[in-house]
Protein backbone atom coordinates (compact mmCIF):
# COMPACT_ATOMS: atom_id res chain seq x y z
CA UNK A 1 0.00 0.00 0.00
CA UNK A 2 1.24 3.48 -0.81
CA UNK A 3 2.76 5.33 2.12
CA UNK A 4 0.47 8.32 1.57
CA UNK A 5 -2.63 6.15 1.88
CA UNK A 6 -1.32 4.68 5.11
CA UNK A 7 -0.89 8.25 6.36
CA UNK A 8 -4.51 8.98 5.44
CA UNK A 9 -5.68 5.93 7.39
CA UNK A 10 -3.55 6.81 10.39
CA UNK A 11 -5.09 10.28 10.46
CA UNK A 12 -8.61 8.84 10.27
CA UNK A 13 -8.01 6.53 13.25
CA UNK A 14 -8.02 9.64 15.44
CA UNK A 15 -11.62 10.40 14.48
CA UNK A 16 -13.44 12.29 11.70
CA UNK A 17 -11.16 14.66 9.79
CA UNK A 18 -12.31 17.31 7.36
CA UNK A 19 -10.88 17.12 3.86
CA UNK A 20 -9.15 20.54 3.97
CA UNK A 21 -7.59 19.76 7.37
CA UNK A 22 -6.39 16.39 6.11
CA UNK A 23 -4.90 17.99 3.00
CA UNK A 24 -3.02 20.55 5.12
CA UNK A 25 -1.79 17.86 7.49
CA UNK A 26 -0.39 15.72 4.68
CA UNK A 27 0.82 18.58 2.53
CA UNK A 28 -1.25 17.59 -0.51
CA UNK A 29 -4.19 19.02 -2.41
CA UNK A 30 -7.82 18.34 -1.48
CA UNK A 31 -8.18 16.55 -4.82
CA UNK A 32 -5.30 14.24 -3.88
CA UNK A 33 -6.98 13.47 -0.56
CA UNK A 34 -10.20 12.59 -2.38
CA UNK A 35 -8.32 10.28 -4.77
CA UNK A 36 -6.60 8.48 -1.88
CA UNK A 37 -9.89 8.06 -0.03
CA UNK A 38 -11.57 6.66 -3.14
CA UNK A 39 -8.70 4.21 -3.67
CA UNK A 40 -8.99 3.07 -0.06
CA UNK A 41 -12.73 2.58 -0.46
CA UNK A 42 -12.10 0.44 -3.54
CA UNK A 43 -9.68 -1.62 -1.45
CA UNK A 44 -12.45 -2.37 1.05
CA UNK A 45 -11.98 0.30 3.71
CA UNK A 46 -15.32 1.69 4.90
CA UNK A 47 -14.74 5.45 4.95
CA UNK A 48 -17.78 7.64 5.43
CA UNK A 49 -17.98 11.30 4.48
CA UNK A 50 -20.19 13.68 6.44
CA UNK A 51 -20.44 17.10 8.00
CA UNK A 52 -17.48 16.36 10.27
CA UNK A 53 -15.32 15.09 7.45
CA UNK A 54 -14.01 11.63 6.59
CA UNK A 55 -14.49 8.84 9.14
CA UNK A 56 -12.96 5.35 9.13
CA UNK A 57 -15.70 2.91 10.13
CA UNK A 58 -14.17 -0.48 9.39
CA UNK A 59 -11.04 -2.15 8.01
CA UNK A 60 -11.03 -5.11 5.57
CA UNK A 61 -10.36 -8.56 6.98
CA UNK A 62 -7.32 -9.00 4.77
CA UNK A 63 -5.87 -7.74 1.50
CA UNK A 64 -4.15 -4.34 1.35
CA UNK A 65 -5.18 -3.79 4.98
CA UNK A 66 -2.21 -5.95 6.05
CA UNK A 67 -0.02 -2.86 5.66
CA UNK A 68 -2.27 -0.76 7.92
CA UNK A 69 -1.15 -0.81 11.56
CA UNK A 70 1.84 -3.03 10.81
CA UNK A 71 4.64 -2.43 13.33
CA UNK A 72 7.59 -3.31 11.11
CA UNK A 73 9.58 -1.22 8.60
CA UNK A 74 8.62 -3.24 5.53
CA UNK A 75 6.87 -2.57 2.25
CA UNK A 76 3.87 -4.87 1.76
CA UNK A 77 2.85 -5.82 -1.77
CA UNK A 78 -0.54 -7.56 -1.85
CA UNK A 79 -2.04 -9.76 -4.58
CA UNK A 80 -5.51 -11.31 -4.65
CA UNK A 81 -3.96 -14.14 -6.69
CA UNK A 82 -0.42 -14.87 -7.83
CA UNK A 83 1.43 -17.92 -9.08
CA UNK A 84 4.11 -17.71 -6.36
CA UNK A 85 4.96 -15.09 -3.75
CA UNK A 86 8.52 -16.48 -3.69
CA UNK A 87 8.87 -15.93 -7.43
CA UNK A 88 7.68 -12.34 -7.08
CA UNK A 89 10.04 -11.73 -4.14
CA UNK A 90 12.96 -13.08 -6.19
CA UNK A 91 11.98 -10.65 -8.92
CA UNK A 92 12.02 -7.76 -6.44
CA UNK A 93 15.41 -8.94 -5.16
CA UNK A 94 16.80 -8.81 -8.69
CA UNK A 95 15.64 -5.20 -8.88
CA UNK A 96 17.61 -4.34 -5.77
CA UNK A 97 14.69 -4.13 -3.36
CA UNK A 98 15.02 -4.81 0.36
CA UNK A 99 12.51 -5.17 3.17
CA UNK A 100 9.67 -6.20 0.86
CA UNK A 101 6.91 -8.62 1.84
CA UNK A 102 4.74 -10.18 -0.87
CA UNK A 103 1.35 -11.34 0.43
CA UNK A 104 -1.38 -13.18 -1.45
CA UNK A 105 -4.86 -14.48 -0.75
CA UNK A 106 -4.27 -17.30 -3.21
CA UNK A 107 -1.29 -18.93 -4.95
CA UNK A 108 -1.80 -20.89 -8.13
CA UNK A 109 1.68 -22.42 -8.28
CA UNK A 110 2.81 -22.79 -4.69
CA UNK A 111 5.76 -25.14 -4.08
CA UNK A 112 7.27 -26.64 -0.96
CA UNK A 113 10.57 -28.30 -0.13
CA UNK A 114 11.98 -30.71 -2.73
CA UNK A 115 9.72 -29.01 -5.31
CA UNK A 116 6.60 -30.60 -3.82
CA UNK A 117 3.18 -29.14 -4.62
CA UNK A 118 1.74 -26.91 -1.90
CA UNK A 119 -1.99 -26.19 -2.14
CA UNK A 120 -2.56 -22.47 -1.59
CA UNK A 121 -6.29 -21.73 -1.85
CA UNK A 122 -8.04 -18.50 -0.95
CA UNK A 123 -8.29 -18.00 2.81
CA UNK A 124 -4.72 -18.93 3.70
CA UNK A 125 -1.71 -16.78 4.47
CA UNK A 126 0.80 -17.06 1.65
CA UNK A 127 3.69 -14.65 1.95
CA UNK A 128 7.37 -14.20 1.15
CA UNK A 129 9.79 -11.93 2.98
CA UNK A 130 12.81 -10.49 1.19
CA UNK A 131 15.84 -10.06 3.47
CA UNK A 132 19.44 -9.01 2.92
CA UNK A 133 21.24 -10.22 6.07
CA UNK A 134 24.93 -9.52 6.46
CA UNK A 135 25.93 -13.13 7.14
CA UNK A 136 27.84 -15.88 5.31
CA UNK A 137 25.75 -18.18 3.14
CA UNK A 138 26.29 -21.04 5.60
CA UNK A 139 24.32 -19.10 8.22
CA UNK A 140 21.21 -18.73 6.07
CA UNK A 141 19.33 -21.73 7.60
CA UNK A 142 18.84 -19.84 10.86
CA UNK A 143 16.36 -17.55 9.08
CA UNK A 144 14.25 -20.56 8.17
CA UNK A 145 14.12 -21.42 11.87
CA UNK A 146 13.23 -17.79 12.60
CA UNK A 147 10.29 -18.01 10.19
CA UNK A 148 9.05 -21.15 11.96
CA UNK A 149 9.26 -19.35 15.30
CA UNK A 150 7.44 -16.29 13.96
CA UNK A 151 4.67 -18.42 12.47
CA UNK A 152 4.29 -20.49 15.62
CA UNK A 153 4.17 -17.46 17.88
CA UNK A 154 1.57 -15.73 15.71
CA UNK A 155 -0.57 -18.87 15.63
CA UNK A 156 -0.32 -19.29 19.40
CA UNK A 157 -1.37 -15.68 19.92
CA UNK A 158 -4.39 -16.49 17.76
CA UNK A 159 -5.32 -19.26 20.22
CA UNK A 160 -3.93 -22.47 18.69
CA UNK A 161 -1.12 -24.41 20.44
CA UNK A 162 1.27 -24.96 17.56
CA UNK A 163 4.76 -26.43 17.75
CA UNK A 164 7.72 -26.89 15.40
CA UNK A 165 8.91 -30.09 13.82
CA UNK A 166 12.55 -29.84 12.75
CA UNK A 167 13.53 -27.92 10.88
CA UNK A 168 10.60 -25.70 9.96
CA UNK A 169 7.23 -27.46 9.84
CA UNK A 170 4.64 -25.80 12.07
CA UNK A 171 2.34 -28.50 13.40
CA UNK A 172 -0.73 -28.92 15.59
CA UNK A 173 -1.24 -32.32 17.18
CA UNK A 174 1.22 -33.86 14.73
CA UNK A 175 -0.60 -32.44 11.69
CA UNK A 176 1.11 -29.90 9.43
CA UNK A 177 -0.31 -26.39 9.62
CA UNK A 178 2.40 -24.40 7.83
CA UNK A 179 5.50 -24.94 5.74
CA UNK A 180 8.47 -22.75 4.94
CA UNK A 181 10.66 -22.56 1.84
CA UNK A 182 13.81 -20.44 1.88
CA UNK A 183 15.70 -19.46 -1.27
CA UNK A 184 19.00 -17.60 -1.44
CA UNK A 185 21.52 -16.02 -3.74
CA UNK A 186 25.05 -15.04 -2.78
CA UNK A 187 28.64 -16.10 -2.40
CA UNK A 188 30.18 -18.37 0.24
CA UNK A 189 31.21 -15.41 2.38
CA UNK A 190 28.00 -13.41 2.10
CA UNK A 191 24.30 -13.57 1.34
CA UNK A 192 23.14 -11.25 -1.42
CA UNK A 193 19.46 -11.83 -0.77
CA UNK A 194 17.26 -14.28 1.08
CA UNK A 195 13.59 -15.02 0.36
CA UNK A 196 11.68 -16.74 3.14
CA UNK A 197 8.36 -18.13 1.89
CA UNK A 198 5.67 -19.09 4.40
CA UNK A 199 2.52 -21.03 3.59
CA UNK A 200 -0.02 -21.11 6.43
CA UNK A 201 -3.36 -22.90 6.21
CA UNK A 202 -5.37 -20.22 7.99
CA UNK A 203 -9.08 -19.81 7.18
CA UNK A 204 -8.99 -22.65 4.69
CA UNK A 205 -11.68 -25.30 4.56
CA UNK A 206 -10.10 -28.68 5.43
CA UNK A 207 -11.38 -30.10 2.14
CA UNK A 208 -9.29 -27.53 0.26
CA UNK A 209 -6.07 -28.90 1.77
CA UNK A 210 -5.64 -32.23 -0.03
CA UNK A 211 -2.37 -33.42 1.51
CA UNK A 212 -2.53 -36.11 4.17
CA UNK A 213 -1.85 -35.29 7.79
CA UNK A 214 -2.46 -31.56 7.39
CA UNK A 215 -4.74 -29.17 9.22
CA UNK A 216 -5.86 -25.55 9.15
CA UNK A 217 -6.77 -22.87 11.67
CA UNK A 218 -10.31 -23.13 10.33
CA UNK A 219 -10.36 -26.78 11.42
CA UNK A 220 -8.66 -26.11 14.75
CA UNK A 221 -10.53 -23.06 16.01
CA UNK A 222 -13.06 -22.00 13.42
CA UNK A 223 -10.92 -19.31 11.84
CA UNK A 224 -8.90 -16.27 12.85
CA UNK A 225 -8.36 -12.61 11.98
CA UNK A 226 -5.97 -13.07 9.06
CA UNK A 227 -4.85 -9.46 9.03
CA UNK A 228 -3.74 -9.53 12.66
CA UNK A 229 -2.21 -12.99 12.23
CA UNK A 230 -0.19 -11.90 9.20
CA UNK A 231 0.94 -8.69 10.86
CA UNK A 232 2.16 -10.51 13.97
CA UNK A 233 4.02 -13.05 11.83
CA UNK A 234 5.81 -10.28 9.91
CA UNK A 235 6.54 -8.29 13.09
CA UNK A 236 8.04 -11.24 14.97
CA UNK A 237 10.14 -12.28 11.98
CA UNK A 238 11.47 -8.74 11.69
CA UNK A 239 12.38 -8.69 15.39
CA UNK A 240 14.22 -12.02 15.07
CA UNK A 241 15.99 -10.83 11.92
CA UNK A 242 17.48 -7.99 13.95
CA UNK A 243 18.28 -10.22 16.98
CA UNK A 244 19.70 -13.53 15.74
CA UNK A 245 20.72 -14.58 19.26
CA UNK A 246 17.03 -14.92 20.16
CA UNK A 247 16.20 -17.38 17.37
CA UNK A 248 17.49 -20.70 18.75
CA UNK A 249 16.17 -20.23 22.32
CA UNK A 250 12.73 -19.44 20.89
CA UNK A 251 12.91 -22.41 18.51
CA UNK A 252 13.76 -24.75 21.40
CA UNK A 253 10.83 -23.35 23.39
CA UNK A 254 8.38 -24.33 20.63
CA UNK A 255 10.14 -27.51 19.47
CA UNK A 256 8.12 -30.70 19.24
CA UNK A 257 11.11 -32.67 17.94
CA UNK A 258 13.54 -32.39 20.85
CA UNK A 259 13.33 -35.36 23.22
CA UNK A 260 11.68 -37.57 20.62
CA UNK A 261 13.05 -40.60 18.87
CA UNK A 262 13.41 -39.59 15.23
CA UNK A 263 14.45 -40.91 11.86
CA UNK A 264 16.10 -38.40 9.53
CA UNK A 265 16.58 -39.18 5.85
CA UNK A 266 19.45 -37.03 4.60
CA UNK A 267 19.60 -38.30 1.03
CA UNK A 268 22.71 -40.44 1.37
CA UNK A 269 22.05 -41.96 4.79
CA UNK A 270 19.48 -42.50 7.51
CA UNK A 271 20.08 -41.26 11.05
CA UNK A 272 17.91 -42.72 13.81
CA UNK A 273 17.98 -41.90 17.50
CA UNK A 274 16.82 -39.33 20.04
CA UNK A 275 16.81 -35.68 19.05
CA UNK A 276 18.71 -33.89 21.80
CA UNK A 277 19.35 -30.34 20.62
CA UNK A 278 19.48 -27.86 17.76
CA UNK A 279 22.61 -25.83 17.12
CA UNK A 280 23.38 -22.71 15.09
CA UNK A 281 22.54 -22.21 12.30
CA UNK A 282 19.88 -24.94 12.56
CA UNK A 283 21.53 -28.36 12.65
CA UNK A 284 19.89 -31.17 14.63
CA UNK A 285 21.85 -33.27 17.13
CA UNK A 286 20.68 -36.90 17.19
CA UNK A 287 21.91 -39.35 19.85
CA UNK A 288 22.04 -42.70 18.08
CA UNK A 289 23.19 -44.57 21.19
CA UNK A 290 26.71 -44.90 19.83
CA UNK A 291 27.37 -41.21 19.22
CA UNK A 292 25.72 -37.84 18.72
CA UNK A 293 25.32 -37.19 15.00
CA UNK A 294 24.80 -33.66 13.71
CA UNK A 295 22.38 -33.43 10.79
CA UNK A 296 22.35 -30.30 8.65
CA UNK A 297 19.34 -31.10 6.45
CA UNK A 298 16.87 -33.89 5.80
CA UNK A 299 13.32 -35.19 6.20
CA UNK A 300 12.58 -35.79 9.86
CA UNK A 301 10.07 -38.39 11.05
CA UNK A 302 8.92 -38.53 14.65
CA UNK A 303 8.97 -42.12 15.93
CA UNK A 304 8.14 -41.68 19.60
CA UNK A 305 6.53 -39.02 21.80
CA UNK A 306 8.86 -36.58 23.54
CA UNK A 307 10.27 -38.11 26.69
CA UNK A 308 9.45 -41.61 25.45
In short:
It contains 8 helices and 14 strands.
Straight-line N-to-C gap: 50 Å
> What is the count of β-strands?
14
What structural category characterises the helix and strand content? alpha+beta
CATH level-4 homologous superfamily of the largest domain: Bira Bifunctional Protein, Domain 2
**CATH topology descriptor of the largest domain:** BirA Bifunctional Protein, domain 2
Major β-sheet annotation: 7 strands, mixed
Poorly predicted ranges? none
Shape: elongated
Written account of the structure:
The protein has 308 residues and is an alpha+beta fold. The chain has 8 helices and 14 strands. The chain has a 7-stranded mixed beta sheet, with helices on both faces. A hairpin with a 2-residue loop joins strand 1 and strand 2 (53-58). Helix 2 crosses helix 3 (30-42), helix 5 (141-157) runs antiparallel to helix 7 (226-241) and helix 5 (141-157) crosses helix 8 (247-254). The protein starts with a helix and ends with a strand. The model has no long low-confidence stretch (mean pLDDT 93).
